Amino acid sequence: MRILLIEDEGPAARQLSKLLLAAKPDARILDTLDSVESAVRWLRTFPAPDLVFMDIQIADGLSFDIFRQVDVTAPVIFTTAFDHYAVQAFKVNAVDYLLKPIDPEDLQRALEKIEKQRNAPVFDVKILSNLFKKETYKERFLVKTGQQLAFLTTTDVAFFRSSDGLTQAYTAAGKKYFVEHALDELERLLDPQDFFRVSRGVTVRFSAIKAIHPHLNGRLKLELQPAAQEEVFVSRERAGEFKVWLGG
Fold this sequence. Notes:
Blueprint: E1 2-6, H1 10-23, E2 28-33, H2 36-45, E3 51-55, E4 57-58, E5 61-62, H3 64-69, E6 76-80, H4 87-92, E7 96-99, H5 104-116, H6 125-133, E8 140-145, E9 148-153, E10 157-163, E11 166-171, E12 176-179, H7 183-189, E13 195-197, E14 202-205, E15 209-214, E16 220-224, E17 232-234, H8 236-246
């Protein structure tokens, strides 16, 4: 199988190549491209590959822009750190969508699916773009304060922390409230432009990050405003995506 990678982060591209060759030893990585411009030029120049892996957010825009400039006749598997409700739309159109860091078993299933649907039609990028434009995210949470119920707006939240199965929302004013949603759920409910899950137990808002410090083993240490009671780190596995997220 001849595979084209469109990924602007070197470590992520190398890891994906490693996983692909482990899952499919006969695969051949044709090239690794890091931008819309280079992808369009490649697809106009060379014969279509058997499969394309695309990160959605790449160096000079969204990979959707590729489809507006050139016909993509190969099946596409999207890879991204951000979950969206449009996932089902991808699947209906015989392509797939993998969240980073990519799980080898998920990758294996996606490759098996592609093998079974090699003649599947290419999706309509305009339909997908409209779905993303219509995406809405959670704007408020119902919380308990004393003996009363109140609304906490998402814009007031600086970060979420999960501990012992409970999730707390910390506001910019330093107050904290329990919310019913686990961090896994919040990844789907919160705008990924504003919030990033830096580790298993913490999701932070962009505007709450005061400073970032390199730390041991490839991790990053965050200073938040308001300050967290415990130290907050970006895990080594998420550090690369975190840097991409910071750059918008």
